[in-house]
Amino acid sequence: MKRISKTRAPHSYLKWCKLVRGTQDEDYRRLQNPEKADLHRKLLEEQGWLCAYTMKSINEENSHIEHIKPESLCRADLVGSDLDYNNMIACFPLIGMNRQFRYGAQKKADWWEKDGIEFISPLNPACENYFHFDLKGNITPVINSEAANTTINVLSLDHPSLTEEREMAINGFIYGSGDKPLSKPKTIQALQTICTKDREGRFYGFCIVVRDALQHHLKILEKIEQKKKFSCRRT
Known about the structure:
The protein has 8 helices and 4 strands; from the N terminus they run ααβαβαββαααα. The chain is mainly alpha-helical. It has one domain (11-234). This is TIGR02646 family protein.
């Protein structure tokens, strides 16, 4: 999970919210384009075009606006609270896609047990510290945290197909199109940039996953280096 730092909602959306305040239209279900499209794009830009839950690369055509606290529960608690920008993120997949993906936002659906106290939100400043990924793309809690385990289960972040996608991203980055993996200097260099946005404001897909894998890869390279040095001393 990549931390999301919320900024300001788009002007068109804020203007619409002000216009409908106190009316029967103060309801997320009433939001239409162009304001909804502006909102969607702003969320994508804010997140560096990564799914907030899975870190898959996304765009307008394969994602939707997700409410962390389900919008139906927001409306039940307080009229208009389903319009809170700080409760919105962009997630894979597009609403209405024929195929069902049993992980991420579709898996979470309307889950919100214990008012979400055991759910690690991508808005949590420490969210990246709760999970770890190995070279095979497997996810585990960094510490034996009930919240981390709950979040993995609620989002099915250990789903086989999602794990496979993460492993493909790792192999694609470390090995590229060849058989030789990244050298130590290139691995160190990659670790410095993998979690930064490119010139277009986009993060590398599964960047946190690849970062963890690069750290594993670097340790392996260092062990090989040490063995060679030890072998040279003996000869």
